[in-house]
Amino acid sequence: MNDSTFFDQQHLNELKKQEKALNDLLKNKANNQKPKKESVNNILAYSKAVSVRHTDQLGYIEQLLN
After folding, report:
1. Mean of the per-residue pLDDT values for the chain?
2. What is the mean pLDDT of residues 3-31?
3. CA 59, 64, 66 angle in degrees (round to 5)?
4. Which of 23, 27, 43, 65, by CA, is between 20 and 30 Å from 3?
């Protein structure tokens, strides 16, 4: 039995159209986002300054070398 009416189908089509538009917008925003150069440099500097060592008695030890 088909309980949908013309209005229901129109409404459903409009919702699908809006959903597609929102998905396209989100994809475009996600593709255009990049981290700041400063953020990348800070992460790289930290990775060069950190030392992680394993010891038998204490497990892993993290130290900043500068």
Report:
1. 86
2. 82
3. 150
4. 23
